Amino acid sequence: MSGEALLAAAARGVKGGLVRLQLGQAKPHWSPDGGFLALLDCTPELFARTQGGDPWFFLGAQGRRLAARKLARARRAGRVQADFPCYTPAGQLRWLRWCGVLEAPHRWRFFCLDIGRWRQMQRELEGERERRQVLLRCTDGLAFEYDGAEDVMTFCDRRPGRAGGGIWRAEGYLAALEGSGCPGTADFAAICRGKSAGPAEVRLEGRAFPGHEGGWFSASGAPVEGPGGRSCVLGVLRDISAHKKETQKLRSRCCRDPMTRLYNKLSTAEAVDGYLQGPCRGSSGALLLIDLDDFKGVNDRYGHQFGDAVLTEVSARLRTNFRATDIVGRVGGDEFVVFMKDAAAPVVGETVERLCQLLEQELPSRRGLSVRGSIGVALWPRDGASYEALFAAADRAMYEAKRAGKDRYRMAAGAPAPALGEGGGGEVGCPLCLGRLLERATAAPAPEEGVRRVLADLGDALGAHRTYFVWKGEAPLHVWTAPGVAAGLPDGPAAPALLDRVDLQPYYDPAAGCCPG
Asked: What pLDDT band is residue 487 in, cutting at 50, 70 and 90?
C-alpha cells in the first residue's frame, strides 16, 4: 500500500472534538465538548477543576509557548492550523491537530483531531524512505518505477555525482525500448508489465537509459499500487557490465585454443551441432578434417617452438581461406576441422584445392619449407546429420588420402578426389590434364620438387608403382616410387615414358581446361 493510501486510511479512523477559547479575561477559559474531552481521557469535572489551577495544563510548557506565538500571528488572518503535543491528566502524550477560526475579537473556536496514528505512519514512511536512500547510496543499484497506465518510466540514481539529482523520466518508454532491438528487452518489458519478477539480463542503449549506453544490467521488480490506485512496478537495475565482460572473457578462454585462437575440440563440436540443429541452418555444408603430413618430423628437426609457429601460420591460412561465418577449430596436435556453411559440393572442391595450394606456400619463417596436409571431406547432410557422424566420415576419407600418398584430399562415401582437381559433383579430374599438371609443378618451391609432385600424382591416378620422366629413347631422368614399393629401376631397356611433351600435347584443350573425353 502506498504512503498516500496509508494516510487516507488513518484519516478515516481518527477521533476529533470541538473546543472554544475565550481570551481577554483574567484567565483564559476553555469550553470543550465531549469529543475533545475524550481525546484527553478527561471528565468535565476533572477538566474544570484542573483548568481552574492552570488553563493551559494539557499543552505543557513547550506547547503553551508555541500556542501563544501561533495565536498572536494568526489574529490578523483570523484562522490558524498547527499540531501540538498535548497531555492527559495522567500525563500521556496525545498529538492533536488544531484547526481554529477567530469568531470574535477574543474568541477562538477549534476543531481538534487526534493525529497520533497518522504521525506514527508518517515517521515509518520517512524512515522507510530514508532507508531506501541509504541503500541506493551504498549500492550500484538503480531504482526504477514504471507507470503502466501512463507508460512513463522514472529512473532514480541517487549515487554521488549524478547530474540533475539522478532523476530521469520518459514517456512512451516501453515502445521505444522494444524498438531498440537491444538484447534482453523482451524480458525487461515483461518485468515492467508485472508479468515477471526477474531477474533478467538486459542491455540498455540510447534512449533506453541515457548516460549508461551499452551497459549490461540485471533487472528485477514487483507490482505495487501507485498514485490514484494505478498499477505500477518498482524495481532495481544492477550494473553487471564488468561481470558480463569478465564472463565473456572466461568463456572465450574456455572455448578457444590458447595458441591458435581457433575453437578447441569441445567448442568445435558444440558450434557445429548448434548450427546443424538450429533454425538458421542452410541446406548444405561440408566438414573438412585436415591432418598435417609428417608434422612430427618438423618438431624433431626444428624443435617444438618452431612447430608451434607452423601451427599458428597454418591457423592463419585457414582463417584466410574460409569465410568468417565458417567454423574453424583445432581438434588435435596437428589436426584441424573446418565446417563450411551453405556450401555445395562444387564450391567445396574449389575451396579445398585452393587450401592445398595455400598450405604448400613457403613458410615465412623458413625459406624453402612448406607444409602439406591430408584432407578428408564429408558433405552434410549426405554423409551424416551430426558432427560426430560427419567427423567419422571425414576421418575415414582423410586416412584414404594418407594411404594414397598424402598431400591430397578425399571425399567421403567412396567418392575419391585427388589433389589434382575435382569436377562437378565430386568426380575425379582428368589425371593427364597438362594445364593442371603445370599448375601443380609451378606451385612447388623448387623444380625438382615440382617434378616429384607431378610424377606422384600421375602414379597415384594411374595406379602405377613407379612413374618416370624421360626423353624419348633415353634413360629415365626422374623416378617416383610408390610408398611400400622397393626403390630402384627395372633391368633391361629404358622404361616407357609416362610423361612426354609430344605425347601429351594432343590431349590438352586450353579452352576446356582438361583433356577431351
From this structure: low
SS3 content of the chain, % helix, strand, coil (to 5): 40, 25, 35
Residue corresponding to grid cell 483531531: 113
Locus of grid cell 470574535: 104
pLDDT digits (tens, 9 = 90+) for 55-64: 888 887 777 8
Q: What is the pLDDT of residues 305-339, one digit of tens each?
A: 998 999 999 999 999 899 989 999 999 889 999 99
The x, y and z cell numbers of residue 473, run together, are: 629413347
Cα–Cα separations (whole angstroms), residue 129 to 3, 133, 192: 10, 6, 22
**The pLDDT of residue 365 is above 90:** no
d(CA 210, CA 219): 17
Question: Who contacts 242 (Cβ-Cβ below 8 Å, separation ≥6)?
Answer: none
Q: Which residue has the higher pLDDT, 137 or 22?
A: 22
> Alpha-carbon distance 16 to 11, whole Å?
11
C-alpha–C-alpha distance, residues 477 and 486, integer Å: 18
Count Cα neighbours of 346 within 13 Å in the Cβ-side half-sphere: 3
400 in the Ramachandran plot: left (φ > 0), alpha (ψ -120 to 50) or beta? alpha
Residue type, 125: L
The residues pairing with 374 across neighbouring beta strands, listed in sequence order, are 291
Question: CB count, 10 Å around CB of 152?
Answer: 16
Phi, psi values for residue 384, rounded to 5°: 160, 155
- CA torsion sign for 392, 397, 403, 407 is negative
- The CA distances from residue 87 to 38, 121, 402, 470, in Å, are 12, 20, 105, 129
Res. 67: pLDDT tops 80: yes
> Residue 14 and residue 30: Cα distance in Å, rounded?
22
Cell of 155: 529512473
For 108-184, where are the alpha helices, taking DSSP H only?
A: 116-138, 173-179
- Reported for 343-347, long-range contacts at CB under 8 A and 24+ positions apart, including other chains, are 343/284, 343/285, 343/286, 344/284, 345/284, 345/286, 345/379, 345/411, 345/424, 345/425, 345/426, 346/422, 346/424, 346/425
With left for phi above 0 and alpha for psi between -120 and 50, is residue 421 left, alpha or beta?
A: left
With contact defined as beta carbons under 8 Å apart, do 497 and 475 qualify?
A: no
